[in-house]
Amino acid sequence: MAQWFVTCLLTAVLAGRVVLSAESEERLVTRLFNSSRYNPMIRPAQFPTEIVTVKFYLIISQLISVNEKEEVMKTNVWLAQTWMDYRLMWNKEDYDHVQVIRVPSESVWKPDIVLFNNKDGQYDVALYTKVLIYDDGKVEWLPPAIYQSSCAIDVRHFPFDKQNCTMKFGSWTYNGDEVDIVLDYAEAVMDDFKLNGEWDIIKSPSRRTLEGDEVYVHYDFVIKRKPLFYIINLIIPCILISSLSVLVFYLPSDCGEKITLSISVLLALTVFLLLIADIIPSTSLDIPLIGRYLMFTMIFVTFTTVTTVYILNVHHRTASTHDMPTWIRIVFIKVLPRILCIKRPAEEVVDAKEGAIRTSLYHKPREDALEMRKRNGMMTEGGRGFGAISRSSTSSPSMQQTERRHLAPELEDAVRHVKYIANFFKSQDDDSEVSDEWRFVAMVIDRICLWLFLIVCVLGTLGLFKEPLFYGDDD
To answer: Whole-model pTM above 0.90?
Structure first.
């Protein structure tokens, strides 16, 4: 019973104290914001020349996005502002030790600090939260805001770039002789910052500037892009496509797909260039790194296509269309193949093969020839016949003319036709040999271009991406 009585007594005391506190706070608010005593449109200065000092610092909660195309940085921030208002002081002993009250921000004077370099025309904060007023006259206001500030994008190192996006704050109506803005912290506060998937904030120093009699506060956000997305989706595909253009010179000319491969690579790079154009801002001040690499690759592939056309022209040359100069035969058939480790079939092997063919075609064994002559009744006195014909082929023209008189007309026609066929095949062999030489020259040029373009591709890629790889964090 006694315990229940004590509990009820304590509850009554506490309830009474709460009621007294609420009544005290109501009395305090009524006294402070009496219309005859306080006007929220009047600057809290005791005399006209007094400067109201506003302590200001920025709390960044989230870097929402950076739009490179429109050059906009979107952030979620809190604007912490503190100033003294002598009209809002009280003795806490008179109001049951009430030390702080919370009132709507519309009820008090505010320094109307706004973002000057906004991009969407929204100068104001997102929510007019309540202000905290302390018994010594200190006023604290912490309104949240979602700002879209302008940011000059430097595309020179895209996608390995860093940007410096500045947010400029200042009082919209008061100059430095009336309201002075001072910084409370040297950098933006990032205690509750949420990480962004594309950008890292390297540093965010603050600075106070004077422009005439105007006071401004700047926050310079140095942000660095996380390039993994662009490496996977842009850089690596571009490098692989560039390597395909080098393999054009390793593709045999007889397959008929060299030009097709070159044009396909050129079209693929054009598609990548269109994708880049949709991402980067429309500026002529700088060319982005990935754009420079794509242009280098496109020029590279264009030269590859032109060179391939010339190589195919050399490959399909014949004795009837082109005569091979002596210097080409020396340089591209004798000298360069040794340097490039290109081997041709040994000439003695080819000569032995041709000798075997001629022997099988024109030099039958003597026994077979005698048997043929006996079978056809062509054996004559003095050994005339095919033997005479064969001997006549090696004798002088006068002797051949004398021996032909003793041949029948049918044999003369046969001999003439055989000589025509022999000359035809010999001409074909000569033409084939010249065509083979032109094909070999084309293969040597292919090999030279393979190594030359490979070196240019590797050095060009390293040269373009060298600077971003050693791109430091300090600007």
So the answer is: no
C-alpha distances out from residue 315 to 252, 257, 306, Å: 10, 14, 14
Phi, psi at residue 234, to the nearest 5°?
Answer: -125, -55
What pLDDT, on the 0 to 100 scale, is given for residue 423?
66
DSSP-derived pairing of the beta strands 52-67 and 72-89: antiparallel
Neighbours of 168 (CB within 10 A): 17
At 109, the amino acid letter reads W
Question: By three-state DSSP, how is residue 111 classified?
Answer: coil
> pLDDT per residue over 35-85, tens digit each?
788 999 999 998 988 999 999 999 999 999 999 888 999 999 999 999 999
What does the pLDDT look like over 101-154, one tens digit per residue? 999 999 999 999 999 999 887 777 878 899 999 999 999 999 999 999 999 988
**Residue 284 carries which DSSP code?**
S
CA distance 80 to 63: 18
* 3 state DSSP class of 325: coil
Q: How far is CA 79 from CA 127, 166, 170, 358, 413, in A?
A: 11, 15, 12, 100, 113
For 387-396, letters b (16+ CB in 10 Å) and e give bbbeebeeee
d(CA 299, CA 293): 10
Work out the mean pLDDT of the chain and round it to a whole number.
Answer: 80
Do residues 44 and 131 make contact, with C-beta atoms less than 8 angstroms apart? no
Q: Is 248 exposed, middle or buried (0-12, 13-18, 19+ CB in 10 A)?
A: buried
- Pull the structure tokens for residue 37: 């005593």
Amino acid letter for position 362: Y
- Are 176 and 213 in contact by the 8 Å Cβ rule? The answer is yes
Which of 200, 181, 177, 180 minimizes the C-alpha distance to 190?
Answer: 200
| Separation of alpha carbons 384 and 391, rounded Å | 10
Q: What is the DSSP string of 354-375?
A: HHHHHHHHH---HHHHHHHHHH
- Which amino acid is it at 106? E
Could you give the CA distance from residue 435 to residue 416 in angstroms, rounded to a whole number? 28
Rg (CA), the chain: 48
